[in-house]
């Protein structure tokens, strides 16, 4: 994103009243390669294709704040790969992760991780150092460092179903795995910060597996670890949390974890989210990303967008889809969101 866009995003995160509601979209390799017409393997492995793909979407949609902006990633492979998960790559899709921790007690046999040298973390950091100056020279910044959350990382390493069983049958071992995942994530975020430099002023945590647990399990197995991550970084940084699974169990607690921006899924209406979090978090959402964003007509996108905006209001609101941008979301539907946003912002000016 551009520096002035980051300033807008920060101000919205701080619940400042802006002249216009901004629009931001989470985009990475599930959407970008298909939109620009390149193979996933080329997107990951060819530095020129990666750079030109990001530059194209920034130039095509200059009024959208792309989050986190110039994301250096291998799908969701980096975090679990450092803890031994098997990663399989595909030419036309994001990588698949296969768990290898068949017995949770084996985490005591894990070698100490090294984020600078392990698996796809090492490769990602190298690519950041290799490409960042070109991004900066083009007039953009990389203001956020990004990681999957503890439950997501643990789920990839252990297997999500087995992890859910462990929470009930082997809670002490589940805590050991979550503690390891949390330490890894904090070190991973700090390593990205070091690689990018001082323009970093935010963290972006993605953890959909939090949406698989009830409220009691959230408070025991999720909240303390999410809070540890937020507490490890400056208080005035932007802290964005993404979960497009269920948020009912965690919604009331996320502000206390330290997050100030929430991107959530289609399952919970924005009116309910706004009622429950009040002015404690900026809401980044939540047009239905698949049924509307990908499959909807321009008219349906417009109506859904205006519905979200009217319920969300004009303070602490960033227009987005309910989660990441789904593969196949067409240009005309993104433009329909922008036009509906301009309509909404214009009505505020003339009111």
What tags apply to this protein structure?
351 residues; alpha/beta; TIM Barrel; 6-stranded parallel beta sheet; two-stranded parallel sheet; 48% helix
Describe the structure.
The protein has 351 residues and is of the alpha/beta class. The protein has a single domain (3-350), classed as TIM Barrel (Alpha-Beta Barrel). The chain contains 14 helices and 10 strands. Strands 5-6-7-8-9-10 form a 6-stranded parallel β-sheet. The protein has a two-stranded parallel sheet with strand order 1-2. Helix 10 links the parallel strand 6 and strand 7 (238-243). Helix 7 (150-158) crosses helix 9 (171-196) and helix 8 packs across helix 9 (171-196). The chain is globular. The protein starts with a helix and ends with a helix. The mean pLDDT is 97.
Summarize the helices and strands and which ones pair or pack.
Blueprint: H1 3-13, E1 24-26, H2 32-36, H3 40-45, H4 47-60, E2 65-67, H5 78-81, E3 86-88, E4 96-98, H6 119-137, E5 144-148, H7 150-158, H8 160-169, H9 171-196, E6 202-206, H10 215-231, E7 238-243, H11 254-257, E8 261-264, H12 270-277, E9 282-287, H13 298-312, E10 317-321, H14 331-350
Parallel strand pairs: 1-2, 5-6, 6-7, 7-8, 8-9, 9-10
Antiparallel strand pairs: 3-4
């Amino acid at each position: 994103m551009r520096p002035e866009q980051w300033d807008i995003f920060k101000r919205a995160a701080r619940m400042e009243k802006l002249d216009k509601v901004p629009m931001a979209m989470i985009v990475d390799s599930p959407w970008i390669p298909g939109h620009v017409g390149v193979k996933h393997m080329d997107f990951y492995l060819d530095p020129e294709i990666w750079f030109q793909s990001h530059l194209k979407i920034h130039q095509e949609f200059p009024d959208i704040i792309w989050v986190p902006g110039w994301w250096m990633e291998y799908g969701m492979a980096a975090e679990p790969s450092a803890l031994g998960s098997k990663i399989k790559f595909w030419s036309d899709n994001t990588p698949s992760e296969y768990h290898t921790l068949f017995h949770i007690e084996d985490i005591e046999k894990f070698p100490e991780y090294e984020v600078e040298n392990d698996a796809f973390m090492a490769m990602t950091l190298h690519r950041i150092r290799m490409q960042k100056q070109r991004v900066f020279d083009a007039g953009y910044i990389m203001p956020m460092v990004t990681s999957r959350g503890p439950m997501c990382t643990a789920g990839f390493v252990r297997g999500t179903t087995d992890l859910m069983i462990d929470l009930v049958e082997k809670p002490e071992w589940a805590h050991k795995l979550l503690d390891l995942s949390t330490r890894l994530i904090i070190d991973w975020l700090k390593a990205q910060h070091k690689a990018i430099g001082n323009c970093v002023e935010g963290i972006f945590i993605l953890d959909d597996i939090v949406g698989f647990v009830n409220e009691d399990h959230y408070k025991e197995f999720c909240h303390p670890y999410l809070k540890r991550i937020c507490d490890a970084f400056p208080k005035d940084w932007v802290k964005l949390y993404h979960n497009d699974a269920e948020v009912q169990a965690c919604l009331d607690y996320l502000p206390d974890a330290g997050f100030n921006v929430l991107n959530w899924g289609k399952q919970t209406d924005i009116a309910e989210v706004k009622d429950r979090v009040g002015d404690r978090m900026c809401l980044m959402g939540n047009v239905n990303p698949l049924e509307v964003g990908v499959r909807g007509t321009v008219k349906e996108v417009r109506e859904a967008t205006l519905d979200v905006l009217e319920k969300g209001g004009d303070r602490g609101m960033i227009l987005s889809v309910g989660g990441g941008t789904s593969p196949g979301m067409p240009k005309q539907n993104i433009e329909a969101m922008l036009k509906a946003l301009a309509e909404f912002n214009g009505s505020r000016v003339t009111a």
